[in-house]
Specification:
Structural class: alpha/beta
Order of helices and strands: HHHEEHEHEHHHEEHHEEEHEEEEE
Shape: globular
Strand content: 15-25%
Radius of gyration: 19 Å
């Protein structure tokens, strides 16, 4: 399966290597990016860890779930101030770390350094933006070219993207995935056998898991995104019952209130709902620096106890805005 577990423990116990990691952590927490050679070393170390992780990462409680970040570095730091910093808090980040925001490179590097330092305290899932095709259109590729003068850094990061887990399972009862369900996936075991070490395909189960959205449809419908599907309450409840889970936790869609439960007894999709078999968590406040939304993280103390924590965007006077604009389109 690639690198043996012993190789990972070997370098984590090497004082020289761990010194490098501590130095990287200090650098990137101030919204700085690493020299190219250091980024390559970091990406290689993250890949070693990810190769030992499965498609569906098993995670115990307590843990905190976060949605899309999209290169909003200063708001990621606000997320940590709200929920606690690793290793005190265990996190599952459900993908879409890059694109849109001003600091995709610094945001991703911040998360990767934390992953190397505290591999068991932070789980990184793949989103639909963690691909070569999407990052070449929506900002990350151009950002790497601007800051490094070549595409090497982008290539190192894409190798990491290919190895990111597809889902996480909290206490065996809460499934975390970036997008949603697939008509080709009826059990969690089917997610476990997907070949993930590649570019996300344009169709099929892997594609659907990172692209699909819940909606007010009976079962399945064509997605206006051009990839994945729309899926309804019946499909969601059947999947949960079949797999013995209580909740699907996903990201992928902007929610003005920061989070939104769907398909519950208290309201249909589009109406106020205080609970349900599916929840969308969105963690990029004032998305694209203009949407005006709040953001959230969802804390699970155990499988039956959860609390949403809301946070707002960092004020303009507390962030540095580079002289460039984000891509104008939404995915």
């Amino acid at each position: 399966r690639g690198y043996p577990r012993a190789a990972f423990f070997c370098w984590t116990r090497n004082p020289h290597i761990m010194g490098d990691i501590d130095r990287w952590l200090e650098m990137v927490k101030d919204c700085k990016y690493l020299p190219e050679n250091d980024l390559k070393d970091l990406a290689d170390k993250v890949c070693e860890i990810l190769m030992e992780e499965g498609n569906v990462q098993t995670v115990p409680t307590p843990t905190t779930v976060a949605g899309d970040i999209h290169g909003q570095f200063y708001d990621l730091e606000e997320l940590f101030r709200t929920g606690g910093y690793p290793p005190a808090t265990r996190y599952i980040f459900m993908g879409d770390f890059v694109d849109r925001g001003y600091y995709s490179l610094e945001t991703l590097t911040r998360l990767l350094t934390l992953k190397v330092k505290f591999p068991d305290r932070i789980v990184l899932l793949r989103g639909n933006h963690e691909t070569r095709q999407i990052t070449m259109v929506y900002g990350f590729y151009d950002e790497c070219m601007t800051k490094y003068g070549n595409a090497n850094a982008w290539r190192y990061c894409c190798k990491v993207f290919d190895l990111l887990s597809v889902a996480a399972l909290i206490d065996g009862r809460i499934l975390c995935v970036h997008g949603g369900l697939s008509p080709e996936v009826s059990t969690i075991d089917q997610i476990r056998v997907i070949e993930r070490n590649k570019e996300i395909p344009h169709e099929g189960a892997f594609c659907d898991l990172v692209w699909s959205d819940p909606d007010e449809v009976e079962r399945w419908a064509i997605s206006p995104r051009g990839a994945g599907y729309l899926f309804g309450a019946t499909v969601t409840k059947e999947f949960n019952n079949r797999n013995g889970i209580e909740l699907i936790c996903r990201a992928h869609q902007l929610v003005q209130e920061g989070y939104k439960y769907m398909f519950g007894e208290n309201g249909a999709y589009g109406e106020e709902d205080t609970d349900g078999p599916l929840v969308t968590v969105w963690s990029a406040p004032n998305y694209c620096y203009r949407c005006g939304n709040v953001a959230s993280i969802l804390e699970f103390n155990d499988a039956g106890s959860k609390e949403a924590k809301l946070f707002s965007a960092v004020p303009d006077e507390d962030r540095v805005v580079p002289e460039r604009t984000a891509a104008p389109y939404f995915l």
